[in-house]
Amino acid sequence: MKYLVLLLILTRCQLKQGVLEWKVLEKITDYGQNVTLFCNVSNCCPKHAGWDRYTPAQRTIFIDVKTGSPTKKYDGKVLTDGYTLVIQNLTKQDLNVLYSCVYDSTLGDQQYLLEENVFDYISTTKQNSPIDNRTFSAGDISTTQQNGQIDNQTFSAGKIAGIILGVSIAVLVVFLIICFWKRKKERHKNIRNSIEGSNEEVPLINCFLEEPNDIQCIEGEDAVLTCKLRPDLQAVKWFKNGKEIIQNEKCIMSTVDTQHKLTLKNTTAGDSGEYYVHVGILSKKNSTKYYRNPKGNKCG
């Protein structure tokens, strides 16, 4: 009897925090225009230069802008002293969102893209016309006094509006700081729980250079599980059903550059199960389903 073995391999990794920061290169005047974020990196960029977005779940926009393909929403390129992320056709959904740049194994600070960072407002205040030296009549003096009272009222209204605006900005800043602090605290808690054996999900950077594919296999043939990871990671370990796989004549592990392989020789129905890759102290597993396979299919 022949069977289909479906093997899914997922991994998680933790990048070290760095001092990378991004800034807006040039402000715009309205929605629908393109905004360019710039990440400053000296002698850029022999290593992977990417971007991440949090809404609040983490999403990788580019693993490497040098090799990544532009989309209708995002583009990027490498400059002499850094690299960019171009957010095309800016909408309100692109603002008040955390962005960070990732260079090699260094994760930059998570920074909010706010409205005041993006838009260049044009002042509509008109300059006061100079008053010519002349002789004022009693009527002119009365009119001037009335205008002065109106100006004082206008100044008072403007002062109140300025105070309200200042308080609103202060409240917004405090709110953003609290959100950032809570997010950082939750991240540390998840990492600590993972170290202690917790099954909670930990939102880490995707370290796959290529996503793993499902594998179909016939009993008796060899199955090759592959994953392509970012360089300079900790040792990679393979697990099945929660137990570490030890290399032997049946299970052969190999690594070439960023390509990691686990070869299962002469597969049987007993090879069905949950396989996953373990990097460092964190990992994530997926359930594996076992199907009957039509005759003639090969593992791959």
Task: Provide a short characterization of the protein structure.
This protein is an alpha+beta fold and 300 residues long. Among the domains are: 4-11 and 204-291, Immunoglobulins (Immunoglobulin-like), CATH 2.60.40; 19-108, Immunoglobulin-like (Sandwich), CATH 2.60.40. The protein contains two helices and 21 strands.
Question: What secondary-structure arrangement, pairings included, does this model have?
Answer:
Layout lengths: L3 E2 L10 E2 L4 E3 L10 E6 L8 E6 L3 E5 L11 E2 L2 E2 L2 E6 L9 E7 L2 E2 L3 E3 L1 H4 L19 H58 L12 E3 L12 E7 L6 E5 L2 E2 L6 E6 L2 E6 L10 E5 L2 E2 L6 E2 L9
Parallel strand pairs: 2-11
Antiparallel strand pairs: 1-21, 3-4, 4-9, 5-6, 5-10, 7-9, 8-9, 10-11, 10-12, 13-14, 14-18, 15-16, 15-19, 17-18, 19-20
CATH topology category name of the domain at 4-11 and 204-291: Immunoglobulin-like
User: What is the helix tally?
Assistant: 2
- Estimate what percentage of residues fall within beta strands: 25-35%
Residue runs with pLDDT of under 50 for 5 or more positions:
1-15, 123-136, 198-204, 286-299
Which CATH-level-2 architecture of the domain at 4-11 and 204-291? Sandwich
Residue-averaged pLDDT: 75
Can you tell me the CATH class of the domain at 4-11 and 204-291? Mainly Beta
**What percent of the residues sit in helical stretches (DSSP H or I)?**
10-25%
Task: State the shape.
Answer: elongated
Biggest sheet descriptor: 6 strands, mixed
Terminal Cα separation, in Å? Answer: 19 Å
Q: Tally of extended strands? A: 21
> H/E series, N to C?
EEEEEEEEEEEEHHEEEEEEEEE
Pfam families: I-set
GO molecular function, one term: protein serine/threonine kinase activity
InterPro entries: Ig-like_dom, Ig-like_dom_sf, Ig-like_fold, Ig_I-set, Ig_sub
Domain Ig-like: 203-288
